[in-house]
Amino acid sequence: MTAARYEARDGLGWIVIDNPPVNAASHAVRAGLAEAIGKAKADPAASAVVLACAGRTFVAGADIREFGKPIAPPSLPDILDAIEGLDKPVVAAIHGTALGGGFEIALACHARVLSKDASVGLPEVKLGIIPGAGGTQRLPRLVGVPAAIGMAATGRMVGAAEALKLGVADAVAEEDVLADAARLAKKLADMPPRRTRDLPVPPFDPAAADAATVAATGKARGQIAPKIAADMIRLTATTTFDDGISQERAAFLKLVTSDQAKAMRHAFFAEREVARVPRLEGVKPRTTERVAVIGAGTMGAGISVAVAAAGIPVAVVEMNEAAAEAGRARVAGLFDRMAKSGRLSPAQHAAAVAAHSIGVDFEAAVGAADVVIEAVFEDIEIKKALFRRIAPVAKAGATLATNTSYLDVDAIAAVTGRAEDVIGLHFFSPANIMKLVEVIEGAKSDPSAVATGVALGKRIGKIPVVCRVCDGFVGNRILGAYRAAQDILLENGGTPEGMDRALEAFGFAMGPYAVSDLAGLDIGFARRKSLAPTRDPKRRDGGTTLDRLAQMGRFGQKTGRGFYRYVEGKRVVDPEVTALIEEVAREQGVTRKPVDDDLVVRATRAVMANEGAKILAEGIVPRALDIDVVYLQGYGYPVWRGGPMFEADRVGLKQILADMREVSALAGPGFEPAALLVELAESGGAFASWTKRN
Ligand code: T1G
């Protein structure tokens, strides 16, 4: 099967690309296209040409797997020049998504027909690059500079209707995009091809272009590609097409080998690879036709909405009618916001609402479910009691999942008498939006139950990461480690505002102290109190300041004061907090010395990698990419750094080990370098290529 073929039919030439699963413009596709274009050019029977794709979608872009390797000719720009230069009209028939190089192919055609559910876009900036085959030079000639920036500098996809309105689609096919494209091709056959490159750039308001650029770069803080994409688009107003093309290509080639592009490509593939867990290879998930969720609080509402939005019937159970009624209101609000934001189309909204119910009949809901998800108060005794109720009612073979964020899944499973059916499904709030779900495999979980958790996660649009039981699983365990290190640095001489600034410059969306105030110090304080009996008094954990603030009723934003004061919603530094930190340091016998931003970043990065190394060595997850995906999808880790383990490999494990040794000297017991980190650093190894030997 050739990746692109030519056939003549009904007086038209047909070029059909066929490269499953997404028709990526691989070398085979480009070579096939070169041959097909030659045939179209030479075919006297073909008065015009339709360019289409087999399978589920138009070309989804250049083949990302080829990046970082020498580009085998013909290059995509050469192919596009050949298409655009044909002396007969070429009409693109677009279904599914035409993205990146795929959309650039369509832009080099002389007209474009989209099926009504098709989308087009230039998402290259999401890979840390910019369009490299004329996208920044052709798109503005069709939609204008501001709109082109709004698309290419953000990576935003547009649907068929908007594409028509913008002028990048010539028609939208209600039924048959191929038939409509053929009709248009015949209509254009006697006219000279309308070459996008020859179109004048529509006049535009520079302020609108500036605004689009600011909006795009504002959403991608720290990333370099968006601004470059916008600059390339602006070039169209000041230079020739050919000069613009060569500047775009040069910028693309430079970006494609950048650290940011390597990190974002890693993230792209890791988020797909992570659901393929080696030890679950070939394990069949159990059938999941109905789900029950116990608890309609924040988490239960979010989880059940995500399930219903995927079209799976879900019955939520509450303790009493009043709680059920409150849950219904909460769920209705979530559905409405998802409809308003366009996450759910009107039809999807209606179907999701129809699939969702909340009641008080525990036996009916749990007895009918293939998967039961508990989402009640984070207390081990409450969860155990509930699972004692679920176990005898749930049908044989049903998967029983707890949404706990750090309690012992094995302890919960042990009370059910059917531990093989029990897993954890740790969703992240808001559960109807956040993509990460940690699928916790208990010591006695049957692989089919774990596979069921993974399959359900994917089906509801999540990114499932399978991990074994440990305190905090992957995300919260690493969070606990680096937050303790940061709190010790705070006592040693840091300030909340200084440390937040350093970590926001590193790329975190919010610094740790702003996050603590947002989440509520009372929550952290309650957890610390529960862990206090087991805490090693010889180890500093830096939490004294938080304890004091909580005891003073300073719970953060919700009380107007925490690590910061909040004046009309604005976060301001509070000298009282600085004084309190100094007092705590004195009590600890610590002489405060200024902590610079560089140390804050190096310490955070090292402790994250160090805890990740322990997690790998313990076999909690099989691969470093599992840890990266947890942080990218659940903790606001900057995607252009690829995740804590990818970033550690980039920096080099020798440096990470040196930084970890510096942290250990500053923070004392509990911050020793992990054996695996030492082993890899001393052997010149990397996390990416390490797998657990047994
Ligand atoms: N190259 C290689 N493989 C790709 C790919 C691509 N462009 N897109 C998807 N795949 C693989 C993916 O890894 C997975 O593989 C399988 O296809 C199904 O993907 C010159 C330089 C198209 C919306 O950024 O956004 O063009 O895991 O699970 O959920 O200027 O794939 O099965 O082994 O995501 O239905 C620009 C990236 C590239 C689009 C479909 N294009 N792809 O989503 O399936 S750069 C993109 C997507 C470029 C030009 C520049 C999505 C999708 P496996 P999937 P999906």
Describe it.
- The protein is an alpha/beta fold and 694 residues long.
- The protein has four domains: 4-257, 2-enoyl-CoA Hydratase, Chain A, domain 1 (Alpha-Beta Complex), CATH 3.90.226.10; 288-469, 3-Layer(aba) Sandwich (Rossmann fold); 476-587, N-(1-d-carboxylethyl)-l-norvaline Dehydrogenase, domain 2 (Orthogonal Bundle), CATH 1.10.1040; 597-693, N-(1-d-carboxylethyl)-l-norvaline Dehydrogenase, domain 2 (Orthogonal Bundle).
- It contains 29 helices and 19 strands.
- Helix 5 runs parallel beside helix 8, helix 8 (206-219) runs antiparallel to helix 9 and helix 12 (298-309) packs across helix 14 (346-355).
- The chain is globular and about 85 Å long.
- The model has no long low-confidence stretch (mean pLDDT 96).
- The structure holds (2S,3S)-3-hydroxy-2-methylbutanoyl-COA.
- (2S,3S)-3-hydroxy-2-methylbutanoyl-COA (T1G) binds at residues 21-22, 24, 60-65, 76, 97, 99-101, 104, 123-124, 127, 129, 131-133, 135, 269, 272.
Summarize the structure.
With 694 residues, this protein is α/β, with parallel strands linked by helices.
Biggest sheet character? 8 strands, mixed
Return the domain count. Answer: 4
* CATH topology description of the largest domain: 2-enoyl-CoA Hydratase, Chain A, domain 1
Report the portion of residues in β strands. 5-15%
Helix content: 40-55%
Stretches with pLDDT under 50, minimum 5 residues: none
**CATH homologous superfamily grouping of the largest domain:** 2-enoyl-CoA Hydratase, Chain A, domain 1
CATH architecture of the largest domain: Alpha-Beta Complex
Q: How many helical stretches?
A: 29
**Going across the major beta sheet, what is the strand order?**
12-11-10-13-14-15-16-17
